[in-house]
Design goal:
The protein contains no helices and 9 strands. It has strands at 2-8, 23-30, 33-37, 40-44, 49-52, 58-62, 68-75, 80-83, 86-89. The strands form 3 sheets. The protein has a 4-stranded antiparallel beta sheet, with no helix packed on it. The two termini are 18 Å apart.
Length: 91
């Protein structure tokens, strides 16, 4: 399992992407946003939990005026590329 805390600035957006072999869960801790999972779209606020099945396109964007903070847990972990203190999904 990999667990990360993500801080997304107002107006920022994650590109649509897929984790072919991993289930992912996002739990929103602060801020407001918009989540795409497959063909479904929903607003997210603190306390919202989103499950993303393997092979499902998804993305999140910050639609508020405050930082959007969420925890992402992924099982099994997806490969990452690390450069200094920054990491991003590999591939």
């Amino acid at each position: 399992m990999s667990v990360t805390i993500v801080h997304a600035d107002p107006g920022s957006r994650q590109d649509e992407h897929v984790h072919p072999d991993s289930t992912q869960v996002y739990v929103v801790m602060a801020g407001t946003g918009h989540m795409l999972v497959g063909d479904e779209e929903s607003e997210v606020t603190p306390g919202t939990m989103i499950r993303i099945p393997p092979g499902t396109k998804h993305a999140i964007r910050n639609t508020g005026e405050e930082r959007l903070t969420y925890v992402s847990a992924t099982v099994p972990p997806f490969p990452v590329q690390v450069e200094g203190t920054t990491w991003r999904p590999a591939g």
